Amino acid sequence: MTRAPGLTSGRNLSYLAFAAVVVVYLLILQAGGLLIGKAAGEDSMDSTRGVVFTLLIPIGLALVFTYGVVAALGWNRQVLTDDRPVSRWVWAVPAILGGAIVLGIDYSALGDKGWGYTLALLIATQFVGWGEEGMFRGIGVTVLRKHGMTEGRVALWSSLIFGVVHLSNIVGHGASAVPQAIIVGLAGYFFYLTRRVSGSNAVNSVLHGLFDFALLSGTLGSTAYLGTFVPILAYPVLAILLLARRHRIEPATPTLA
């Protein structure tokens, strides 16, 4: 198998070393979040201060760690760009996600919270998007490719890993973290395709953050917001679309005359 030119640059990372990197990342998020929140006397995201100390700071530290690892490995190009294109129709994936985000944001609840709260939540969720996409679609995908996996296996394993690590949310959410991990694994595949069709890790990172922003905004109001269900419904819509067109995801291989 001939490797893409970008995969030959930078250091190599074993599966065990990648697992260690992920564990440290999760410790910063989970343990760091609990410790920082406790030290600040905050345990929820009901206030701007709560968002800053329970979300923004620990997630920001995890983000710095992620891109510190990328820099140390010399993987800036491999993580930030993608040279494995897919068919152009796959742009439907980020388009559907984007539409779901616009419809899913509870603008009224955010208005009641104020601009300071909204900005803090937006920054925190962007940190989530760039951090998780950098770790799992960036470092994770590069690790799998460097070990010679086919792109189908890269898609499968990177999505499974993404889902499994979200079982760490059991610490704060209990058994509800299990179905969440399954759904997140599916979302990982959508973000993986977004990375490939855009040729960059930026579009999936921004969308990931905005998707979480939309979902969290739906929990802020005193009454249920029906728009919250739109991002959730995007999952089965995308799953059906991709299943129906699964043989047309990869670009057609030109035939020799």
TrEMBL record:
Domain CAAX prenyl protease 2/Lysostaphin resistance protein A-like: 116-213
Record-level Gene Ontology MF annotations: endopeptidase activity
Family annotation (InterPro entries): Rce1/LyrA-like_dom (IPR003675)
Keyword Cytoplasm: no
Bilayer-spanning residue ranges: 12-31, 51-76, 88-109, 177-194, 224-244
GO biological process: CAAX-box protein maturation
UniProt KW keywords: Membrane, Transmembrane, Transmembrane helix
Superkingdom per UniProt: Bacteria
Pfam short name (any one): Rce1-like
Signal sequence, start to end: none
UniProt protein name: CAAX prenyl protease 2/Lysostaphin resistance protein A-like domain-containing protein
Organism of origin: Gordonia spumicola
High-level lineage: Bacteria, Bacillati, Actinomycetota, Actinomycetes, Mycobacteriales
